[in-house]
């Protein structure tokens, strides 16, 4: 993506209040994730290290905006710190998936032939599983834990990226400049990495950044099913699941962490919509039409 | 001009498109008349606004187009003042029908030719009985020279060739016995041999159905073959209008002359193909004066200042050029 | 458009290939990835003896390809291991839970299509208006909400607080005894109608509404978004313009012609959203104590019942591939351009 294009996309996001909301939510989420340990009102509560019997099941108040849970911990603090874990998981999953997916897609697309077909067949086998099912199987095998969640999700995730890169590379590899590089005798590896990859990278990285919302959602699902992060990690899905047992006494301890997931993922999805629309020239016209 | 047999009269038409990059003035100050049984050819390069004219007449412009002024008078009724309802029930497809450039994109890919054709027949002719609809469908397909009409009716668009689809499209357009047919580059996407066949067919059907025709093309050769009258457009502006012979044999406008010089002729050996130097002006950023002025060898001061006005030079031969008529429009 | 025999045969072969691939991947994940698979298979509280038995059942003393052979043989003969949570074989356990899940998912899909597609059309036709923006926000929420949270919150509101709908199970057990309702097909809505048992039908309907709506939310929003996007695309196609130019009224062009172009890909996308929905069913069934595969799988996961988990993974992967094949064939029937 050129600088110009990025600027146009930003301009189109700015004129649309809905897209702008998405951008603000995502920015807020990232900032919260980075600063979380320093801005939680009750840091010990946030890490889940405390047990305060007098403060159990307090409804939302000024002191505890999201109330307290069955252990007397401040839910607000736990939700804020949860942003850090969600950010960590989403960046980890998407990053690792890119690390696996891009080389496979690149090699399969550039080499083509039998080897390429075989690689893509393997990719398709992974895609034959419903989303999350493979991650569930892996997480159940590896056991609970932050790193295991990231690995499990990334391994069910990379095939999407290798497909995307594969398609891109296939359309790039026959362009004249690649032929020119071949004629001057560059090695296939050099052509692939230096000349084909950079041009295939934009769509997949944009897609990956926008997929971070889904990663948060799926990690939360794993936690809810008991194969996610270990308690007392304040991961949002786990917080919802922990609050479930006492939902009739203290609904707030499930409601607010879930709301945090919802709002964050909405932010990513709105942003994804905006970028997708902005990158589609036909829709671009329509967006401006709406403003006229 | 006897208004009695005038069927379609366009008066001072202006159409704009609103796009991301700005406003495109697609048609500027276009006027012409079409008489019964006459065929008029609108000739111009791509981007000259000629296709917009056709879509304006049947009011099927894309949503970002706005008709800023003008009238489209058909049988003494201004079509631009009709409601959408009246338009689709009485005019569009019924009185004025249209065929398009890309026959493969003209038909909905999920419906057979017969389904589309019988829907049009049912809607406009009000025939209810299945047998009668089928009969009409088959006879129309036979009329446009399609062999085995039964099979064609049962076919999906992707199962037929471009030539067959264009014939089928003509069958649909003529199935309601319209008075005017607008053909928007109907042969551009076809092979040369097929082009000739389709042109022949249109000529034949024009007599058979007593049609008036507006034929939109960028190809002067095609224009010469089918038309009584020619209208030359450039960047949305009409430049020259007259009978086929007048315009082709005694062209006046410098653009028409250049255009004719570019037509390769088999009997004349030319060293190389001719072309007009320069490019069509950017439609979002048109020059103030005559849009052809930047490419015109004979351009003078007023050409860059004002848009030229159509002036009748000989009987039935009108030209818009400052060289002939100093003054022009303000 | 009739689908040719060759297409069915070709599709069946590719189906077998994909199922084979999926079982191999499952084998690798469950047998090769763990350093000591027998610990997983014997469960968290297993005795040394049980672990040794698990080693035998898994043939862990043999080379890996022999293990694979045994694995495939067991798979084909229906010997999918024994759940140590329920102490019963896995495959019959899954199969007996299948109708409950199917009923839930089918009802959810009916709701999703019946609401999602019309909403998408309205949004496309009213593009850029308030309705379109509201629908956009709603569909984005649908794509973003964690389904287990939706289930919890809706259960809290409609069952605990308002008390208008039952919170768990498929039917009231008392009512079953009183009215003599007995399952035939396993689809309670159908069974109760067959028996003419209206109270049981109403009760089953009341039980299914909440989980089905929660489960339908994602596919509903997905189909609404897809319908909107496709409708806008189709409306820009030449064939829509030519149909209008030939004077077909707008309502025929939109609802007969353009709609068919939209429905075909939306149906094709059903397969994908089915994948999301069945995983969503894990969580929704767990929350609503719905005795289907989802609850079976979720309970197995929560109690580290590894053989049952692996059984569910295999079953769902195979089932999902099957559904996708059926959806592809339906798509081919709707769209004559799909190469058969």
What can you see in these coordinates?
- The complex is a heterotrimer of chains A (292), B (330) and C (340).
- Chain A has helices at residues 3-15, 17-39, 43-47, 75-111, 113-127, 133-142, 146-172, 176-183, 188-224, 236-244, 252-279, 281-291.
- Helices cover 76% and strands 0% of the residues of chain A.
- Chain A has 292 residues and is mostly helical.
- Chain B has one domain (6-95, 178-319): P-loop containing nucleotide triphosphate hydrolases (Rossmann fold), CATH 3.40.50.300.
- Chain B has helices spanning 50-57, 84-91, 103-106, 113-125, 130-143, 149-154, 162-174, 192-208, 220-226, 244-249, 254-262, and strands at residues 6-19, 22-35, 39-43, 65-74, 77-78, 96-99, 180-184, 212-217, 229-234, 237-243, 310-314, 317-320.
- In chain B, a hairpin with a 2-residue loop joins strand 11 (310-314) and strand 12 (317-320).
- In chain B, helix 5 crosses helix 7 (162-174).
- Chain C is mainly α and 340 residues long.
- Chain C has two domains: 1-85 and 303-340, no CATH class; 90-293, MetI-like fold.
- The relative contact order of chain C is 0.14.
- The mean pLDDT of chain C is 89.
- At the A-C interface, helix 5, helix 6, helix 9, helix 10 and helix 11 of A face helix 1, helix 6, helix 7, helix 12 and helix 13 of C.
């Amino acid at each position: 993506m050129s600088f110009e294009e990025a600027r146009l996309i930003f301009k189109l996001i700015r004129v649309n209040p809905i897209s702008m909301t998405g951008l603000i939510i995502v920015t807020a989420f990232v900032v919260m994730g980075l600063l979380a340990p320093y801005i939680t009102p009750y840091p010990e509560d946030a890490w889940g290290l405390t047990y305060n019997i007098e403060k159990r099941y307090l409804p939302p108040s000024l002191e505890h905006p999201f109330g307290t849970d069955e252990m007397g911990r401040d839910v607000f603090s736990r939700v804020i710190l949860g942003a850090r874990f969600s950010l960590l998981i989403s960046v980890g999953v998407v990053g690792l998936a890119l690390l696996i997916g891009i080389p496979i897609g690149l090699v399969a697309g550039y080499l083509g032939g039998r080897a390429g077909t075989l690689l893509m067949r393997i990719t398709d086998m992974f895609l034959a599983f419903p989303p999350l099912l493979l991650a569930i199987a892996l997480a159940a095998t590896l056991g609970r834990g932050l790193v295991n969640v990231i690995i499990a999700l990334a391994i069910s995730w990379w095939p999407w990226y290798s497909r995307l890169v594969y398609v891109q590379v296939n359309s790039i590899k026959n362009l004249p400049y690649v032929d020119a590089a071949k004629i001057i005798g560059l090695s296939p590896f050099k052509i692939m990495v230096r000349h084909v990859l950079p041009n295939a990278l934009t769509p997949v990285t944009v897609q990956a950044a926008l997929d971070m919302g889904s990663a948060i959602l799926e990690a939360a699902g794993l936690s809810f099913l008991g194969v996610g992060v270990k308690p007392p990690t304040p991961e949002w899905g786990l917080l919802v699941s922990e609050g479930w047992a006492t939902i009739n006494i203290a609904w707030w301890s499930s409601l607010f962490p879930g709301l945090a997931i919802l709002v964050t993922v909405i932010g990513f999805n709105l942003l994804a919509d905006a970028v997708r629309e902005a990158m589609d020239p036909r829709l671009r016209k329509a967006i401006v039409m709406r403003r006229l | 001009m006897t208004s009695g047999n005038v069927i379609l009269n366009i008066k001072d038409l202006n159409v704009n498109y609103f796009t991301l990059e700005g406003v495109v003035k697609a048609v500027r100050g276009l006027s012409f008349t079409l008489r019964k049984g006459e065929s008029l050819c609108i000739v111009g390069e791509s981007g000259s606004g000629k296709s917009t004219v056709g879509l304006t007449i049947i009011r099927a412009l894309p949503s970002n187009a706005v008709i800023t002024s003008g009238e489209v008078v058909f049988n003494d009724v201004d079509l631009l003042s009709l409601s959408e309802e009246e338009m689709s029930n009485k005019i569009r497809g019924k009185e004025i029908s249209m065929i398009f450039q890309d026959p493969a994109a003209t038909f909905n890919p999920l419906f057979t030719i017969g389904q589309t054709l019988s829907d049009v027949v049912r809607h406009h002719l009000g025939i209810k009985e299945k047998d009668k609809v089928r009969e009409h469908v088959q006879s129309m397909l036979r009329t446009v020279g399609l062999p085995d009409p039964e099979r064609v009716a049962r076919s999906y668009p992707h199962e037929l060739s471009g030539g067959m689809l264009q014939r089928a499209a003509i069958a649909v357009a003529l199935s309601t016995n319209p008075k005017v047919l607008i053909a928007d580059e109907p042969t551009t996407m076809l092979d040369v041999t097929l082009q000739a066949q389709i042109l022949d067919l249109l000529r034949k059907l024009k007599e058979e159905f007593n049609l008036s025709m507006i034929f939109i093309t960028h190809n002067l050769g095609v224009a010469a073959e089918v038309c009584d009258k020619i209208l030359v457009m450039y960047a949305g502006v009409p430049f020259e209008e007259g009978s086929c012979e007048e315009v082709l044999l005694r062209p006046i406008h410098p653009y028409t002359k250049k255009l004719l010089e570019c037509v390769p002729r088999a009997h004349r050996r030319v060293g190389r193909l001719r072309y007009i130097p320069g490019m069509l002006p950017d439609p979002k950023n048109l020059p103030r004066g005559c849009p052809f002025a930047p490419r015109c060898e004979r351009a003078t001061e007023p050409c860059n200042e004002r848009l030229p006005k159509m002036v009748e030079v000989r009987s039935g031969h009108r030209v818009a050029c400052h060289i002939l008529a100093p003054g022009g429009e303000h | 458009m009739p689908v040719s025999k060759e297409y069915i045969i070709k599709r069946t072969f590719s189906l077998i290939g994909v199922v084979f691939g999926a079982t191999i991947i499952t084998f690798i994940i469950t047998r090769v990835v763990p350093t000591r698979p027998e610990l997983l298979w014997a469960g968290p509280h297993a005795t040394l003896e049980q672990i040794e038995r698990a080693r035998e059942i898994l043939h862990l003393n043999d080379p890996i390809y022999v293990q694979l052979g045994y694995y495939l043989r067991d798979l084909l003969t229906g010997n999918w291991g024994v759940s140590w949570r329920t102490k019963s074989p896995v495959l019959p356990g899954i199969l007996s839970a299948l109708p409950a899940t199917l009923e839930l998912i089918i009802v959810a899909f009916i709701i999703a299509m019946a609401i999602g597609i019309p909403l998408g059309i309205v949004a496309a036709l009213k593009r850029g208006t308030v309705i379109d923006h509201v629908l956009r926000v709603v569909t984005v929420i649908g794509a973003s909400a964690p389904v287990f949270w939706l289930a919890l919150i809706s259960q809290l509101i409609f069952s605990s607080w308002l008390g208008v709908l039952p919170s768990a199970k498929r039917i009231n057990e008392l009512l079953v005894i009183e009215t003599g309702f007995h399952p035939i097909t396993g689809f309670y809505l159908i069974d109760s109608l067959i028996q003419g048992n209206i109270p049981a039908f109403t009760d089953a309907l009341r039980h299914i509404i909440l989980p089905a709506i929660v489960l339908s939310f994602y596919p509903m929003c997905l189909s609404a978004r897809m319908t909107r996007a496709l409708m806008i695309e189709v409306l820009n196609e030449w064939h829509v313009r030519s149909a209008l130019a030939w004077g077909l009224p707008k309502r025929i062009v939109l609802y007969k012609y353009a709609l068919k172009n939209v429905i075909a890909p939306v149906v094709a996308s059903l397969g994908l959203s089915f994948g999301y929905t069945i995983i969503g069913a894990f969580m929704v069934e767990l929350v609503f104590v719905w005795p289907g595969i989802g609850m079976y799988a979720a309970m197995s996961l929560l109690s580290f019942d590894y053989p049952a988990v692996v059984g569910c993974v295999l079953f769902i992967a195979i089932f999902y591939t099957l559904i996708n094949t059926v959806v592809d064939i339906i798509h081919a029937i709707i769209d004559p351009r799909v190469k058969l």
